[in-house]
Each structure stands twice: as structure tokens, then as C-alpha cells.
């Protein structure tokens, strides 16, 4: 497989002066990678030494397959690195967070000092509700500064946050609350999307009804709707903050104490609660923000993800704040009130590093270049991409129309499970559209066959990571067996669940998932989760869901459904089924197509063969169907 579009520009000709990497730190790719290979522990320890610890580590890493411990016995609190270090250093009055609502008249700015103060107060407020180190707190919030305050407040007192994306429905929220055993849920009365008001609180009301673990619900009031709070259970965000002490000493955390749980879709109906720990995650996100994004003091960083996804955790909150960056957060969607809103935001604020998903870029391509052309995007110096393959057409458009052929495109491959960037093309390195890039220094990755043997260049295989890294997940909450499967499926390697291919230079092209996960507009959906939402409806006997290529969203959901006796296919029934999936899982899981069928292809042991449905749908050869029942 060759690179069909190679940006054949010498780096000096396309990188503006100021985007050169500061070589005094880790340095250029090749020598940095070699230094890592020569002595991995030294490599990571040098990076970790840039951060503040309450007590140093005994060992950088201890590995007993498939369990890793990083920075053993070290003590820290990640918020000291994200906040105190800057407040006590030279960034007290530097802007930490800049927020823009859907309406540009709504803007808020928090300096590091202000953010620190709010986090400490809210941390004390949580303590006042009885939250202690190790307790789980669920956040289901709109993207406002208080969301970031709540995240860091949990980390301050050692509570384990579990953020649930505000676009999920009540059932999805309920199952995540119960799995994490959350004691407190933090939410808001409403969120805004495309000018519409979404009643978040009523979704929470429904979700906590069958979640006895929840003792308190904290409600941020954004409107004067005057939602009544139940006095014994519900409290007002700012009221509990107003009566809290202003100073909250950071909880002393062991490097291996959990920092958060984040649910991601898997191949069963039950989402996986990925567990990340304090020390390794801090080092991994700090390192990659600084190295992969080449973060400088003067940068204004805008990652368009939501905190409900790992990208938001790592590259809105922990990574950028630990480097002391100025972070823009915004509640906007790409095309409301018009498709120029993001470009206008970049011009107004002077964003320098912009990190988004291919699905947004493809949506912008559809609207046309006249939208970005209306605005001055000269402040940009680095463009990032994450979430799914950045196809060469989208790459070229992003590079030319947004970056004006002067900004490197940093495509980053990683996962909720990996915590940090794993593969990327670094600033100054040759870009190959379609290819994510190489494993970054610190990461040993390869493309292998199912027995673990490396595939020759051009031959597709499974993407694996061959050695532990600091921000790797430590387990899956309540399901360690599922964690072990990641490391026991192909040799002794970590299997990512992605198909990939390598070229002669070691660049890796990620093709897509090798399992039953569908990525719709950058959001992971497990086929089983959507199927069980369909089957839970009276009319449905069985359901099978596949991902179908979509020019903008990457993939869309198509469902095949068999009906129970007494029900007949109709458009009204289709709409009902779609509506019910929306209510239970949220709009991101809505099938865009439903086909009623008489039966589903199954193996003799009764497993639905989605592969066969997909091949048929796409007019392709279904491959080996010897196990097909009929
Ligand atoms: C896919 C998001 C191609 C991949 C950070 C992975 C990508 C899954 C890329 C993880 C990329 C992510 N190129 N595919 N640059 N980045 N993916 O857990 O299939 O939401 O396994 O983490 O997204 O999605 P997750």
C-alpha cells in the first residue's frame, strides 16, 4: 500500500518559524525514540521529574503481565500540577480557561488563580456532602467552566470521577451510575444545543430513580426556570460552594490510586468502565500535550471534544492544564448558528492549536471553503485530528483550507484505554495523508497477524502495543477478566481492536475496528448495546446492527430487525423504534436505517453473523460462511 498523496515539502518550507519544536526538551523523533529504546525507565523518569510529586517513586515501572504499576509508592495530587504549580509559579494570572457559549455574547474567563480557588471551594463542598477519597462521583453536565471545576474538585479530594457524555439517554446514564456505584451525581438544569434547550435534570431524575447508590444530586442552575430541588437529596451547585471553606489541601494520592473511570463501548451490551490511575496518567498526558502538540507558553489550545470522552479528559483538562496552557472550551457545535462559527471563534480568540475529529472536517468540506475563507485563521500553527481515520481528501482540505499549507497536521491515534496519544506524525516530520504516523517515543507498536508475527509492509493486520506505557488503563471496573483479554488475545501484546497496515517507513495507517464497535461521528458504539435497546421493545424479536460507510459521519448505524408475531412492518413502527433507542441511549446511537427482515443469518451455535449482513449490504463477498446455519 503506498501513500497516494505525499506532502513533498521540506519542513523549512511549510512550517512557520515559530512552530519549530523546542529541541532543548525531548528533541527530534529519531534520536528521542532511540533514547527511549536505550533506557525506557530513564526516558519516563526524566519526564516525570518535570512534575511535582509529594513523594518520589521507588521504581519507574513494575510489570507482571498483564498488570503494570508505574511510579511505585510515589505520592501526588494531579491538581497540584494542573493548578498549584502554576499559581505558585509565574502563571497565577494567566488565563487557564476561556469559555464561549453558543451565543458569543456569553463568554467567561478564569485565570489559574480563579480556577484554583473555585476548585478548592467546590472540593470542600463535595466533602460536605460526604464524598471521600475513593468514592465515585458521576458528572453529567453541559460544557461550561463548572464542568472542569467539578472534574478537578473530584481529583483534589481523591474522589473517582465518572463522566457521562451529556448526549447519552437515561438508560445509558443509569447503567453507568450503577456500575460505578456513584454516590453523588453532578448535573445542570439544562444544556443548550443548536439553540435548543435540553432538560438535563429531568434525564438525571429518571436515571437516578433506579440507582439506590446515589445519595445526593448537585444541580447547577443556568436558567431562571426555577427547578425545584428535593431538599433531602438535591443541592444547588453554587449554594453548597458559597458555604464551603475556601482552602482545600490536596488529598495525598498514591500513583496507582484510581483517578477516574470512563465508560467506552465494547462488544457486549455492557459498556466497559476503563480505570485510569493518578501518576502514570498524569505523566502520559503531560508528556504528549507538550511533545505531540509542541505546547508552548504562548499557545491557545482548542480541542473541540466534550469532557465526556477521553479526548476531553486528556487534552482539554489534564494534559493542557498540567502544561499551564490557555484552554478554550466551547459549547458550540460546528454548524450552528452557521458553519462559520468555529472559524469565527478561532479568529476572535486567536487559537493556535486546534484539535478536532475527521467527521467535523468532512462536514465542513460539505459546506464549502467559503465559510473558513470569511475569517482570518493566521493564528493557527498546529492542526490535530483524532477519533477515526483522517481520509486523504479530508487531510488535504484541512491542510490547505484551514492550515493554508503552513500548519502541520498532527493525526493522533489512541483510545480511551491508552489514555494518551500512541501513534502520531510529529511537528516537523513528513506527513503522509491517510497514515496516522509512527509510534511516538515511549510507545512500541506494530501491525501483526493473529499469531503475533509482524506483518510485512503493505499487509494488513492487527494493531498491537508491545510494552506497557504509563497512562495505560489498569483494569476494567468490575470486570478484570475483560481487561486481561486485551493482553492475552494476540501473543503477550496489548490488542487495540483495530486493523492497520504499515508502510516501508514504519508509518501506520489505521483502517478501522476489527470488532463489533461502530464509530459514528467519532463516537464509539457497541453493536450489542444498540441491539439490546431495540430488543427491549415489545415489537422486536431480534435485532442486528452494522456500521455502514457514511460520507460525513464515517459510519452510520443500520439495524436489521425481526418482529414478534402480531406486529407488521410499517414506517410508523420504524419511527417508534428509532425514537425509543434515542430515549434510552441518546441521539448518537440512533439507527439511520431500519430494515425489517424475516430472519437473521446465524452460526449453528446461534450467534448473529453481522459480517454476512454487512457484506450483503455493501454488495461484497461475505467470506467464509461455512458456519452459517442455513
Ligand atoms: C479510533 C478516542 C484512526 C480507533 C481517542 C480507536 C482512530 C478508537 C484514530 C478509540 C485515528 C482514534 N485514526 N482511528 N487518529 N483515533 N481512532 O476510545 O478505532 O473514543 O480504537 O478514543 O477510535 O476511540 P476512543
Could you characterize what this model shows?
The protein is an alpha/beta fold. The protein has three domains: 5-57 and 278-301 and 316-513, 3-Layer(aba) Sandwich (Rossmann fold), CATH 3.40.50; 80-91 and 101-251, Rossmann fold; 517-618, GMP Synthetase, Chain A, domain 3 (2-Layer Sandwich). Helices cover 31% and strands 24% of the residues. The chain contains 19 helices and 32 strands. The chain is globular, with a radius of gyration of 24 Å. Bound molecules: 5'-O-[(S)-ethoxy(hydroxy)phosphoryl]adenosine (WTA). 5'-O-[(S)-ethoxy(hydroxy)phosphoryl]adenosine is lined by residues 264, 309-311, 386-389, 411-416, 436, 496-498, 510, 513, 519, 524. Keywords: ATP-binding, Ligase, Nucleotide-binding. Residues 85-474 form the AMP-dependent synthetase/ligase domain. One of its GO terms (molecular function) is AMP binding. It is an enzyme of class 6 (ligase).
Topology:
Blueprint: H1 11-14, H2 29-38, H3 40-48, E1 61-64, E2 67-70, E3 75-76, H4 78-87, E4 95-100, E5 107-111, H5 112-128, E6 136-139, H6 145-157, E7 160-163, H7 170-180, E8 184-188, E9 191-193, E10 196-198, H8 200-209, E11 216-220, E12 234-236, H9 237-242, E13 253-254, E14 258-264, E15 272-277, H10 278-291, E16 300-303, H11 310-323, E17 326-330, H12 341-349, E18 353-356, H13 358-367, H14 370-373, E19 382-386, H15 392-402, E20 409-413, E21 423-424, E22 438-439, E23 445-448, E24 461-465, E25 475-476, H16 480-488, E26 494-502, E27 508-513, E28 517-520, E29 523-526, H17 527-535, E30 540-550, E31 554-563, H18 571-585, E32 593-596, H19 610-618
Parallel strand pairs: 4-17, 6-7, 6-8, 7-14, 8-11, 11-12, 16-17, 16-18, 18-19, 19-20, 31-32
Antiparallel strand pairs: 1-2, 3-13, 4-5, 9-10, 14-15, 15-25, 20-21, 21-22, 23-24, 24-26, 26-27, 28-29, 30-31
Helix pairs in contact: 2-3, 4-5, 4-11, 5-6, 7-8, 10-11, 13-15, 17-18
The structure holds 5'-O-[(S)-ethoxy(hydroxy)phosphoryl]adenosine.
5'-O-[(S)-ethoxy(hydroxy)phosphoryl]adenosine binds next to helix 11, strand 20, strand 26 and strand 27.
Amino acid at each position: 500500500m503506498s501513500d497516494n498523496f505525499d506532502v513533498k515539502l521540506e519542513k523549512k518550507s511549510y512550517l512557520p518559524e515559530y512552530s519549530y519544536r523546542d529541541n532543548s526538551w525531548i528533541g527530534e523523533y529519531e534520536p528521542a525514540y532511540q533514547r527511549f529504546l536505550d533506557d525506557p525507565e530513564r526516558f519516563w523518569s526524566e519526564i516525570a521529574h518535570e512534575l511535582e510529586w509529594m513523594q518520589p517513586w521507588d521504581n519507574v515501572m513494575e510489570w507482571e503481565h498483564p498488570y503494570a504499576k508505574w511510579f511505585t509508592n510515589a505520592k501526588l495530587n494531579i491538581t497540584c500540577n494542573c493548578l498549584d504549580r502554576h499559581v505558585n509559579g509565574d502563571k497565577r494570572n494567566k488565563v487557564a480557561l476561556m469559555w464561549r457559549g453558543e451565543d458569543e455574547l456569553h463568554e467567561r474567563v478564569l485565570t489559574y488563580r480563579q480556577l484554583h480557588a473555585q476548585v478548592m471551594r467546590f472540593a470542600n463542598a463535595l466533602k460536605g456532602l460526604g464524598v471521600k477519597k475513593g468514592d465515585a462521583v458521576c458528572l453529567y453536565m453541559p460544557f461550561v467552566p463548572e464542568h472542569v471545576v467539578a472534574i478537578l474538585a473530584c481529583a483534589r479530594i481523591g474522589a473517582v470521577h465518572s463522566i457521562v457524555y451529556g448526549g447519552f439517554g437515561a438508560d445509558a446514564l443509569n447503567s453507568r451510575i450503577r456500575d460505578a456505584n456513584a454516590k453523588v451525581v453532578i448535573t445542570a438544569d439544562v444544556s443548550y444545543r443548536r439553540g435548543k434547550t435540553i432538560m438535563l435534570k429531568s434525564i438525571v431524575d429518571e436515571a437516578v430513580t433506579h440507582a439506590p447508590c446515589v445519595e445526593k444530586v448537585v444541580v447547577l442552575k443556568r436558567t431562571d426556570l426555577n427547578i425545584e430541588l428535593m431538599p433531602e437529596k438535591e443541592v444547588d451547585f453554587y449554594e453548597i460552594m458559597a458555604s464551603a471553606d475556601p482552602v482545600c489541601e490536596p488529598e495525598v494520592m498514591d500513583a496507582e490510586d484510581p483517578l477516574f473511570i470512563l465508560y467506552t463501548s465494547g462488544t457486549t451490551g455492557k459498556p466497559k468502565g476503563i480505570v485510569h490511575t493518578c501518576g502514570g496518567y498524569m505523566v502520559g498526558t503531560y508528556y504528549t500535550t507538550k511533545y505531540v502538540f509542541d505546547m508552548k507558553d504562548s499557545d491557545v489550545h482548542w480541542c473541540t471534544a466534550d469532557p465526556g470522552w477521553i479526548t476531553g479528559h486528556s487534552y482539554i483538562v489534564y494534559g493542557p492544564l498540567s502544561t499551564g496552557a490557555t484552554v478554550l472550551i466551547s459549547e458550540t457545535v460546528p454548524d450552528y448558528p452557521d458553519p462559520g462559527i468555529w472559524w469565527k471563534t478561532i479568529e476572535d480568540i486567536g487559537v493556535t492549536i486546534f484539535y478536532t475529529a475527521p467527521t467535523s472536517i468532512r462536514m465542513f468540506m460539505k459546506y464549502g471553503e467559503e465559510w473558513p475563507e470569511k475569517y482570518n485563521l493566521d493564528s493557527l500553527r498546529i492542526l490535530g485530528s483524532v477519533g477515526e481515520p483522517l481520509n486523504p481528501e479530508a487531510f488535504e482540505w484541512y491542510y490547505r483550507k484551514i492550515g493554508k499549507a503552513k500548519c502541520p497536521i498532527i493525526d493522533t491515534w489512541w483510545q480511551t484505554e491508552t489514555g494518551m496519544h500512541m501513534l502520531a506524525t510529529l511537528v516537523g516530520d513528513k506527513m503522509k495523508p491517510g497514515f496516522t504516523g509512527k509510534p511516538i517515543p515511549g510507545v512500541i507498536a506494530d501491525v501483526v497477524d493473529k499469531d503475533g508475527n509482524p506483518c510485512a509492509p503493505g499487509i494488513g493486520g492487527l494493531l498491537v502495543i508491545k510494552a506497557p506505557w504509563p497512562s495505560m488503563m489498569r483494569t476494567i471496573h468490575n470486570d478484570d477478566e475483560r481487561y486481561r483479554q486485551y493482553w492475552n488475545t494476540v501473543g503477550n501484546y496489548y490488542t487495540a481492536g483495530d486493523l492497520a497496515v504499515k508502510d516501508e517507513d514504519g508509518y501506520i495507517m489505521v483502517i478501522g475496528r476489527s470488532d463489533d464497535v461502530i464509530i459514528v461521528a467519532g463516537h464509539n458504539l457497541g453493536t450489542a448495546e444498540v441491539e439490546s435497546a431495540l430488543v427491549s421493545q415489545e415489537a422486536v424479536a431480534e435485532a442486528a446492527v452494522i456500521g455502514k460507510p457514511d460520507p460525513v459521519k464515517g459510519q452510520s448505524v443500520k439495524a436489521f430487525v425481526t418482529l414478534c408475531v402480531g406486529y407488521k412492518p410499517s414506517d410508523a413502527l420504524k419511527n417508534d423504534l428509532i425514537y425509543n433507542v434515542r430515549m434510552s441511549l441518546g441521539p448518537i446511537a440512533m439507527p439511520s436505517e431500519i430494515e425489517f427482515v424475516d430472519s437473521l443469518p446465524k452460526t449453528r451455535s446461534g450467534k448473529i453473523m453481522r459480517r454476512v449482513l454487512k457484506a450483503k449490504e455493501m454488495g461484497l463477498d461475505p467470506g467464509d460462511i461455512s458456519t452459517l446455519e442455513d
